[in-house]
Every structure is written in C-alpha cells, then in structure tokens.
C-alpha cells in the first residue's frame, strides 16, 4: 500500500449539528494492523442512533472518531488472521470500544468482519451490519426463534433501521412466524415491502389493534421503543411469552410476573466488548451476505447523503437525531477535498 496518511472525521465537543465545526477533519499515519486485526479502506458508512448518543459525551482524548457501520476493502492483514486477504471486500459494525469507521483507513478486529455481499454497492452494504447483527441476535439468539418456529411476533419500531432488516431476516429464516409491525401511516407501505404481514399504528390503540389480529396474544415482542411499555406488553403477550428490547431506560418488570413473561435485552456491542474470542458476528454477517446474494434480504438504504465529509456527516446526524428516519442513511465515497 502506498498511501501513508490517514484522514479521520471526528468531533471535539458535543456541538449542535447546525454548527459547521460539529465534525472536523484530522490526519495521521495509516496504522498497521496488529494481531487479529484488519486494516480496511473504508468506502461507505452509515449513521445509527448510537452515533448520536455517543456524540453527546465529550471525547475523553479531545477528539473521537464515531461510525459503527462500514463497507470497504481490506488493505492489510495482521498476524493470526485467517480467511482474509488484501483486496477482499468486507462489511462490519466493529466495536464501540475503539475508534469508529468514519476514517479512510480503519483498524477492525477480523472476528467482527464479514465478506461484503457481492451483488450490492458499498453504500448498500454499509446499511446493513449494525442493524442486521442487532436484529439477528435479538430474534434468533435472545428470543430463540428457529426455522420451525410458529407464532406471532410483534415488531415495535418496524420502519426504523433495525426493524426494517429484522422483518426481512425473519421472513427468510422463520417463514411460519407472522410479523405484526408497528408503523406510522406514512410508513405502512415500507414495512409491508420489508415483509410485515400485518401493520398496526403505535400512535393508536395497540391493545385493540394487536388483540384484534391475535386474540390470544402474541408469542414474542421485539421493541426498539420499549420505555414504560411493560404493562402494555404484558397485555399483548401470551402467558410465558418473551420481550426483547434494544433501547434504554429503567424497567418495572412487575407487570410481567403474572403471565411469567421474560424480558430480554439485546445490545449488539456485548459480543465485541465482552466476548473477545467470539467469531459469532463474523458468522452472522456471512449469513446475511449470503441472504442478500440470494435476493432474500435487501439493503435498507432510504437515503445516500453522498461522499463522506464533515458537512455530509452533520446532515446525516441531524436526520438521525430527528428520530423519524425510515430504513438507513448511508454516506458513500469520500469528498476529495477532505482526503489527505
Ligand atoms: N441495542 C442495540 O444493539 C441497538 C442497535 C441498534 C439500535 N438500537 C436502538 O434502537 C432504537 C431504534 O433504532 P433504529 O435505528 O432501529 O431506529 P430508527 O431508525 O431511529 O427508528 C425511527 C422510527 O421509529 C419509529 N418510532 C418512533 N417512535 C416510536 C415509538 N414510540 N414507538 C414505536 N415506533 C416508534 C418511527 O417510525 P413510525 O412513525 O413509522 O412508527 C421512526 O421513523 C434507538 O434507540 C437505537 O439507539 C439499539
């Protein structure tokens, strides 16, 4: 590799997205991959709510690079890495415990990286890793929905990044599960196109709508907006049902006891942060890539904010901050003016 200067886009303080200095460019040396690492030339990224939440804290070292979704090309391979070579196209979310992917050359643990689906662009591929890992782990690992499972899954927040890919993954891997998706009226068509069998509006009376479709209650609830919804979910679920939640907030699990309902958490970064030998996320991403290549799962991009620069990143953060995005926002390519 000939390039020796790296370009990083990060933040120095939690400035509002209207401030032109909300993101700044820094340069540094292109790092060499250590044992177990890949050096990836990043070609596209996406922005998730976690980027916005992380930006709220001041960076400990005065400058921090965010970004937990990337697609790119392997530039160099560290010791003890098997299955990757320079030139391979890859996609990954990586770890929140390290600098993120909003940089031209990014070091990532190989165990967290999958091969990019060959049938889609870098931008399309970058829409998938974080949300697909979250959805997969939530539904197939935490709720233990297997290919033979039958029953009703209520998907709360179905039009968002995680919900959009979750609907597709369940359709592809557990075809006998009926998907009841919450979405605003404007997004009902979108969630149907992602695989929802039924659509209900979370702004309306969910008890009447959901029990109208599943009079005995649903078997499972996935929720990306579960705050203070324990009592509601206790009414919507069958006895011995399960909830998996991916958002934040304190819980009062008492309402769940009467029906022996289980409350589970899914945090996509648990594996990267706490199970340092796990290759599970690499395996999941390879499964997702295969499903994309088969046409069973489609990238969830609804907007490409163009080449990566402090300005395009600001616009993407502003959109995600609104809490009203559908599917995923990606940034593909690099603005030549910021590259060192
Ligand atoms: N634990 C993890 O590993 C993990 C991973 C990814 C994301 N998350 C978290 O999950 C949350 C959602 O992330 P995301 O990227 O999927 O979502 P998103 O893209 O931000 O979802 C936005 C959509 O959610 C729907 N929504 C808004 N308020 C709602 C409510 N009260 N009830 C139901 N739906 C509502 C809206 O669509 P409609 O108007 O169509 O309903 C909105 O367009 C965020 O808090 C994020 O940080 C956690």
List keywords for this structure.
340 residues, alpha/beta, Quinone Oxidoreductase, Chain A, domain 1, Rossmann fold, 2 domains, seven-stranded mixed beta sheet, six-stranded parallel beta sheet, 11 helices, 28% helix, binds NADP nicotinamide-adenine-dinucleotide phosphate
Characterization of the model:
It is a single chain. By secondary structure, the chain is of the alpha/beta class. The chain folds into 2 domains: 5-128 and 270-338, Medium-chain alcohol dehydrogenases, catalytic domain (Quinone Oxidoreductase, Chain A, domain 1), CATH 3.90.180; 142-265, Rossmann fold (3-Layer(aba) Sandwich). The chain contains 11 helices and 15 strands. The strands form 3 sheets. Strands 3, 4, 5, 6, 7, 14 and 15 form a 7-stranded mixed beta sheet that branches. Strands 10-9-8-11-12-13 form a 6-stranded parallel beta sheet, with helices on both faces. The radius of gyration is 20 Å and the shape is globular. The mean pLDDT is 96. The site of NADP nicotinamide-adenine-dinucleotide phosphate (NAP) has 28 residues, from helix 1, helix 3 and helix 4.
Strands, helices and their partners?
Layout lengths: L4 E6 L13 E6 L7 E11 L1 H7 L14 E8 L11 E4 L12 E5 L3 E3 L6 H5 L2 H14 L8 E6 L4 H13 L3 E6 L5 H7 L3 E3 L5 H8 L4 E6 L6 H7 E9 L8 H4 L4 E4 L4 H5 L5 H14 L7 E4 L5 H12 L6 E5 L8
Helix pairs in contact: 3-4, 3-10
The site of NADP nicotinamide-adenine-dinucleotide phosphate (NAP) has 28 residues, from helix 1, helix 3 and helix 4.
């Amino acid at each position: 590799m000939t390039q020796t200067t790296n370009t990083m886009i990060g933040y120095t303080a939690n400035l509002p997205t209207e401030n032109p200095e909300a993101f700044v460019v820094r340069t540094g040396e292109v790092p060499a991959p250590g044992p177990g690492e890949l050096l990836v030339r990043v070609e596209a990224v996406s922005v998730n709510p976690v980027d916005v939440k992380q930006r709220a804290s001041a960076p400990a070292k005065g400058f921090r690079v965010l970004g937990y979704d990337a697609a790119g090309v392997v530039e160099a391979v560290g010791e003890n890495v098997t299955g990757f070579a320079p030139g391979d196209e890859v996609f990954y979310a990586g770890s929140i415990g390290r600098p993120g992917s909003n940089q031209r050359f990014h070091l990532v643990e190989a165990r967290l990286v999958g091969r990019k689906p060959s049938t889609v662009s870098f931008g399309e591929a970058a829409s998938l890793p974080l949300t697909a890992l979250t959805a997969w782990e939530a539904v197939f690992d935490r709720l233990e929905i297997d290919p033979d499972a039958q029953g009703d899954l209520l998907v709360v927040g179905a039009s968002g990044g995680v919900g959009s890919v979750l609907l597709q993954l369940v359709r592809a891997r557990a075809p006998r599960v009926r998907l009841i998706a919450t979405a605003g009226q404007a997004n009902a068509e979108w969630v149907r196109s992602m695989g929802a069998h039924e659509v209900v509006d979370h702004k309306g009376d969910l008890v009447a709508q959901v029990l109208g479709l599943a009079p005995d209650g649903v078997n499972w609830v996935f929720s990306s907006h579960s705050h203070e919804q324990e009592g509601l979910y206790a009414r919507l679920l069958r006895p011995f049902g399960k909830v998996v939640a991916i958002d934040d907030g304190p819980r009062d699990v008492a309402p769940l006891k009467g029906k022996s309902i289980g409350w589970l958490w899914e945090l996509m970064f648990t594996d990267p942060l706490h199970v340092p030998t796990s290759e599970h996320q690499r395996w999941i991403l390879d499964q997702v890539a295969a499903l994309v290549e088969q046409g069973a799962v489609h990238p969830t991009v609804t907007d490409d904010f163009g080449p990566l620069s402090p300005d395009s990143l600001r616009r993407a953060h502003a959109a995600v901050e609104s809490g009203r995005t559908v599917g995923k926002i990606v940034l593909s390519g690099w603005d030549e003016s910021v590259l060192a």
